[in-house]
Design goal:
The structure is a homodimer of 424-residue chains. The first copy, chain A, has helices at residues 34-38, 136-139, 158-162, 172-176, 189-196, 221-226, 390-397; strands spanning 8-10, 14-15, 30-31, 73-74, 85-88, 106-108, 121-126, 132-135, 145-152, 179-188, 204-209, 216-220, 229-234, 237-238, 248-250, 263-269, 284-285, 291-292, 301-306, 317-326, 332-338, 346-347, 349-350, 360-368, 373-381, 410-413, 419-422. Chain A is mostly beta strands. The interface between A and B is large, with 140 and 140 residues.
Chain lengths: 424, 424
Amino acid sequence: MTNKNLEKVAGNGLLNRRHLLGMGLGGAGMAVANTVLGADSGPLQIPYWSRQPGPGASPFGDRSRYAPQLERMSGSPNPTYPGGGASRSPLQHLQGTITPNALHFERHHAGIPDIDPAQHKLVINGLVRQPLVFSYEDLLRYTMVSRIYFLECSGNSGAVLRRDTPDPNGTAQSLHGLVSCAEWTGIPLSTLLDEAGVLPEANWIAAVGADAASMGRSVPLAKAMDDSMLALFQNGEPVMPGQGYPMRLFNPGWEGNTSVKWLTQIKLTNGPVHFRDETSKYTDTLPDRSSLQFTFPMGVKSLITSPSGQMSLNQRGIYRVTGLAWSGSGSIRRVEVSADGGRSWADALIDSERHEKALTRFSIPWEWNGGSAILQSRATDSAGNVQPTRQSILDERGNIATYHFHGIQSWSVNNAGEVRDAHA
Amino acid sequence: MTNKNLEKVAGNGLLNRRHLLGMGLGGAGMAVANTVLGADSGPLQIPYWSRQPGPGASPFGDRSRYAPQLERMSGSPNPTYPGGGASRSPLQHLQGTITPNALHFERHHAGIPDIDPAQHKLVINGLVRQPLVFSYEDLLRYTMVSRIYFLECSGNSGAVLRRDTPDPNGTAQSLHGLVSCAEWTGIPLSTLLDEAGVLPEANWIAAVGADAASMGRSVPLAKAMDDSMLALFQNGEPVMPGQGYPMRLFNPGWEGNTSVKWLTQIKLTNGPVHFRDETSKYTDTLPDRSSLQFTFPMGVKSLITSPSGQMSLNQRGIYRVTGLAWSGSGSIRRVEVSADGGRSWADALIDSERHEKALTRFSIPWEWNGGSAILQSRATDSAGNVQPTRQSILDERGNIATYHFHGIQSWSVNNAGEVRDAHA
């Protein structure tokens, strides 16, 4: 049942990327005669929306009522953990790499504080020559940088490692939606630390948020002086309340919880502080019951967002397999895709810019012949790191801790075209 | 009254960019004693929002009630031109380069059609081997590319050329807000044209929208086969209704009206069609009453967004002068800033990525000494084009036509610190 004119590049239907690029594929367009185009009943008949003017320009744009009403998936409130929880980005419905601000994932430890920026203060103290206090207005006077960065919760995709059996109901959003990407604008943290004057014995910073959890994380000074920023804007606008308004720490490429939201204090220290949030959680316990602490960078990772869990292929034919790749250690050099559970691989197209520490879009054409398939993607970053298999992570780390799971994700397709989370 | 320790790089207070980068500037932070930080009345006293948990994660994020409620500025409706008009992006309040979808500028000729994508068709016909009709679902199967591009209305900033006297009430938004920037995702137009099979005698395309104005523009085939796309997504989401939902043509770097929204037909032609919208408007009439037609690429341009019209400097001292630069002919190589009306210039910092045909953020520190100043910026693109003065455009083209004004913009600062639109 497969089309013999298509050039295969790997097993089970993966096609040369020049297909779908106008070089030989029959395509999805319906052929019509020119005479039909002029007929009243033809495809160029004038629809009602072309017959009368619509509403004009407005102060604030809204989505089409016909477009999918994209939403984050947020967990049910837990009465013993007020304000705790997360919401996940609808990855399977988004294209490109930028996440709109309203759809950026969240993870809160005590909900969202309602901060008046005129009353908010940022203190830099500890092992500095001169402790400093900054108002929001003060900070707006500094030179800022703008960079496109992903942010990922270290717990993202953890359910894939924890479970012994696949979850038939998992979607890209429910399993992997704790990752998003935005253009962040802020002040290089080094600027503010230099102004306070870091003393020689300082080698870490302790960052504390103004939420009711006093969320705190220790960050090595080397990172803080490298590319960390005090982020004030997100995709052009002031950062959203759920992202730390009026300001957050942002540590590019590192586990999301270190990018402390609602930042109110940076204390220069000798050694880490061992906050509650870096002992009670955010450590990785190994099979021998020892724990890794301060495992900051997010590993090289990729995910097929379409086809993905809960989708159905409704007919045999050519599909665009597409997804996202990212790495906390650089840019994405390569993404490979397999349709036969990892037995054979083909290079995917990179469809977006390849920014450092940012989501990168990939795709490859695939012909589904009506049989079963296991779709996987495997990313390689600019540092040469290759995304590992789920099994290799289990072999190495076990599954007591489920943070930092960046293994290859598998989606199975059955004969009916149903797509489900799978372990392969 | 000026600080003698600051290194000047051009007249009237422009400072070396290492100031504000933590290398010598006293800075804006308030020095405090460590003992004060522990006192109940000190800056680290616990505000009310840190004393109780806030609301948890939600399906759709909203802006802080304390943040500026950014809006587009939309003109008053004209009863003889239903649905006509524009809305302008709040450039003076945005940072970075990405414009959130709700704030992307609009320009409509007959308002926004309420299109059901399930009923919308895209026809490719004319000088092709095989006319084709595409549904929205068909198009989602194609490989897409994602690129960050500016879009600018050819009429943007035209008022600056037209008026003989400065407008004391003009803002960056009201004068220049018909430019925005987004990550656009779509199908390379060449893919679809190749599928229809372009005949040798075709050298233009005629693109028509499904709005009640049947907005149409002719585009040379060379551009269509180069980097034009059929855009389906904007910053990750389906394109907004005001941007052409479910699909628009997108011609990177070219005047906005050629990127026909609500695209329903592409006809391959020999020569341009001379639509109403490329004869009655969007031509540039010269002093001798001849008109330039099909002046597509937007010129290299920059704009200081802060300080800008209607702002006030409330005290002497160091300010961050920042703005945007862009070019329809490539990326931004250099931006210079002057504080003395163009007598002396200093290189600004480039604070963002430098994408092709995209907004680029620049800044430079400036010490306002309480006197008068004229702030200007001048961009140079990767093709070597330098942004011209307003006067040189007047000398060359006159001001009958005000499209494609990309001259240097001047903001005056008076002794009271008031910032106004000016011609210098």
